[in-house]
Amino acid sequence: MDIGNLKSIGSSNFQRLTSNIQFDKPHEECGVVGIYAPGAEAARLAFFALYALQHRGQESAGIATSNGRVAPIHKGLGLVSQVFNEDNLHLLQGHLGIGHTRYSTTGAVKLPNAQPYLIETALGPLGVAHNGNLTNTPALRRDLLQYGVGLSSSSDSEVITQMLAGAAGRTWDERIAAFMQKAIGAYSLTILTRDAVYAVRDPWGLRPLCIGALNGTGLVVASESCALGTIGATFLREVRPGEIVRLDEAGLASWQGRAAETSSLCIFEYIYFARPDSVLEGRSVHWVRRKLGARLSREHPVQADMVIGVPDSATAHAIGYANESGIPFGEGLIKNRYIGRTFIQPDDRLRRLGVKLKFNPLPDLRGKRIVLVDDSIVRGNTSGPIVALLRQAGATQVHIRIGSPPIRHPCFMGVDMAARAELIAAQMSVDEIANHIGVDSLGYLSLEGLTEVVGPGNGGHCRACFTGEYPVPIANDVGKQAFEQR
Asked: Of these residues, 30, 210, 226, 266, which one is catalytic?
């Protein structure tokens, strides 16, 4: 097994340059893709699809393929462009493939936790790429260890792989369905076997997964529709909660592996995670974010001269706020889009600069009253420095408007949300937060406003980070570092 480019050794804090530059956003765990492309190189298609899903994870990437005889794999730490090159892509032969790009929620940033996982089983090769987080991982892990199954990583995705390998059933169809009866929590999976690619979505539909058609005979599954367009595929539909989809020479087959539960797609996909050009539940993510900004303007109006967004995730919210309020929209912060693409750690002097490594203010702000729109505040560790930047640039007033309600509860379904003790809204009132970050006023979108704008979608959404009401049972010992060897 080729475990990839090791130039990233020592980058365990990759994408987290220092604690002072731990930018205040929740992180989605992963992006997954699956390819059935007769007559084509599945690895090359998977590479570009993963490129489109890079926003969902920047810690590691991997691709496994099959040509019906052998199943090679290549994976490593770093961005998709850093892990793959022409030499290693050329070795990934086959018309079947799965790919993965990772941001960890269970399991630290170590090479053994990189995906896909690929093992040999009684039914031939098995590759698994996972987006999400199982909430009953501790119990499942104990069961595997008691059965004598060795585990080499701390990731719940390896638990899924071993569960599939040892599940009851004579076929992969049966084994996947058997796995689904035991797994609780979020899982959007792409699975590689010798002759097929499978896509599987948990019964709650917590994480997104969609299907596309490719060049007449090919088929693609991916976390988001933006990945389909990148490789010339046409969106067909979303994978339904609890559904198993098989892609092979017979075409597309699907069936219900487990009865669907109450639909609970993570509402943060609309607020922050999904790329704005993706479509979720039949709606443009960019359109929804503009509507959220407009609703925010109606709930928290203010007299100001310019509306700016924190780039890039809050740009659409800010446009919606500006259009609804009649206050001109403008650029105020220029983002260095390459700061997260280096393995080089800053020295102490650069570390003290903190947020200045990522944002620079424009001189256009001088003498203006600014509405700064952001999609969320998690720890509150970058909002204050950004406000200070705007004041240093000459802004006379800074009013922050947030396109989501206060985040008061951690996530256990595949989002690297801080522990409750680290969530600023769980520790302070809105007025206290405003004073802490040094703004003239602070306004959050209401839960009612968020719910009305997003609507019911395909039946409902998970809002647990705002309400504390989780759609699935939560084990007491679930945690990102629960199984790390120290």
From this structure: 30
